Amino acid sequence: MARCYEVVLEIAGDDVRDLRARACAPAIAKPAGTVPPTVVWFSAPLATRTVFTWDESAYGLYAAVTAPKPSAALEPDGEIYPALPRVHYTFEDSGFRVRAGTGAHAEIPNGRYELANGAPVAITAGLVQRAKVNGTDVLSPLNAVVLPPGFTAEFAPATKLYVWLQRPAAPGTVIAPAPDHAVEVDLGGPSRTIAYRYDPDGARFVPCKP
Hints:
The chain is built from one helix and 17 strands. The radius of gyration is 18 Å and the shape is globular. 4% of the residues lie in helices and 43% in strands. The protein is mainly β.
């Protein structure tokens, strides 16, 4: 069943001009599980109003044979979207395949996505998720974990976002933990529409009414 969210970012016109002169743009990260975000989900063009929506019930998996590099965008060699939770997936030279049957496996916790590295080299892997940003579709990694050959990882979705301003970054750009001025957006509340406005005094986004 689809669980769609909408987040609105508002920036006053004068602030847009000032931020544009400083080459800033909103950056959004969505971590996996409880760990801090390590990848920019997407960076939206600077505007007075940015709207992004996504289906929280849909996740995928990606794998890349290139090691993650700080400030560089990940380049997946394979993606499967959407992926099914509690299913054994393996990434090999030929791409993704399902291991040991196609149904859910009791040993995988509910809501988790499992990926094994069946390639002869280490891979970078994690979750991907699709969003619509001001009407444009973006499919981008959410996290990055290095898996040696033969290793398996389980990925858990998170119900939070991090939003901040920085120089524009391509979707999937590897970052250090989100900066101190990043705002944590909790998706666990009753509303599926959440709005934030930019506060120039604090140089960060603050909640407002949709």
